[in-house]
Write a structure and sequence with these properties.
384 residues, mainly alpha
């Protein structure tokens, strides 16, 4: 649409009138500016009523009517540029994605942001438009956005430095050391490891291209380090052996490496599946052996059960003997009788007695009583 509009602004009078007749726009006794404005409005109205397929053919037809064999003059070109710059159809510079915190993976990265800025410069956007578009792309509510909006005169280079510090972009030395010590983790696929190495290599080259760091690395040297890292960082020896001819070639391209890694990883995965299927086929033979062992154990199990029953019975008897040994002779504590009383104290139901419980006298105790043949007052053990 912008191309057709530019052709309308720079078209000769005869071709402009031909387009006006095609669109049924009145152009007689009218100025060139009024005719151009009416033609553009008619084109916009008809495009709204058409579908996508009809739109392409309609614009191509207008382009053929407006195409001229001669070149426009410098004055006409500057006039067209001014009109396009002031046209309502010219879009504002917009960053695709949002600028958030550095640790947010769903937000825009610094490399992608710089790439969009360079594209906007190629499309002839002014520095002010680029700065406003970048600030609008920052997530609302962030302190960074309010800080940048408070600056009245903010140039593009200064804004890029602020954003670089915000993202915490590593310098070339740190990236170089990361690439040199890179290796595949246990849960990482060979394809993921290769893409991670490619990403770090491109970050080094991008940082050198931007020229923000003092230390610059040669592109060939960085590529050789990348190939060496991939060769020594892969865990699987078979995949590394298949890739070694390609990794030793300095002219190998990224797409060839990605393709060969995928092929080697697929072959290795297929081989592992076959080996697992063979190991599963051998399982029934082991199961038969275990079943026979179980049968033998079941035959021996009754004898073992009888032995356990006998041991438990012996334990019960030993426990009963221990309880009988440590039990008091008078029975339980609840059944233990009280102190011995004489006959009179028993009749009077006294709880204590100081009399001889044999004869009832208070002049001696039972062991010294002379009644019942104990005239010599001997103890029971002395009379034997």
């Amino acid at each position: 649409m912008l191309e057709v509009q530019a052709l309308v602004y720079s078209a000769e009078k005869a071709r402009l009138e031909a387009v006006a007749d095609r669109l049924k726009v009145e152009h007689k006794e009218l100025s060139r500016f009024v005719v151009v404005k009416a033609v553009n409005e008619s084109i916009e109205e008809q495009l709204k009523k058409m579908e996508s397929a009809e739109t392409i053919s309609f614009l191509q037809e207008l382009k053929l009517l407006l195409t001229s064999s001669g070149k426009s003059s410098n004055h006409e070109e500057s006039y067209v540029c001014q009109l396009l710059a002031s046209s309502a159809l010219r879009r504002q510079f917009k960053v695709h994605g949002q600028i958030g915190e550095p640790d947010q993976k769903d937000k825009l990265s610094y490399t992608s942001l710089v790439r969009q800025i360079n594209t906007g410069i190629e499309q002839k956007y002014t520095e002010t438009e680029l700065v406003d578009g970048i600030i609008r792309a920052i997530t609302p509510g962030m302190v960074l956005r309010s800080y940048l909006e408070s600056h009245k005169e903010l140039c593009l280079e200064r804004l890029k430095k602020i954003l670089r510090s915000h993202y915490g972009v590593k310098d070339t030395t740190e990236l170089y050391q990361t690439l040199a010590s890179l290796c595949q983790s246990q849960k990482e696929t060979p394809q993921g490891f290769l893409m991670r190495a490619l990403n770090i290599r491109q970050q080094i080259l991008f940082a050198c291209y931007e020229g923000d760091t003092e230390l610059q690395y040669d592109a060939d040297h960085v590529k050789q380090l990348f190939l060496r890292t991939v060769e020594t960082g892969l865990l699987d020896e078979s995949i590394r052996a298949k890739l070694r001819p390609y990794l030793q070639d300095k002219t190998v391209t990224d797409e060839v490496l990605i393709q060969q890694v995928s092929v080697a990883a697929a072959a290795e995965s297929e081989r592992n599946k076959k080996l697992k299927s063979q190991s599963k086929y051998r399982v029934p033979t082991v199961a038969t052996v275990t079943e026979e062992v179980k049968k033998q154990t079941t035959l021996k199990q009754p004898k073992q059960d009888d032995l356990l029953v006998a041991i438990n019975a012996i334990r019960g008897e030993v426990k009963a003997l221990k309880e009988e040994m440590y039990r008091p002779k008078g029975g339980n504590k609840e059944e233990k009788r009280g102190p011995r009383l004489c006959q009179n104290c028993k009749e009077e139901k006294k709880k204590s007695c100081n009399h001889c419980f044999k004869c009832g006298s208070d002049s001696h105790f039972a062991r010294g009583c002379r009644s019942q043949g104990n005239e010599r007052r001997l103890l029971a053990r002395d009379g034997k």
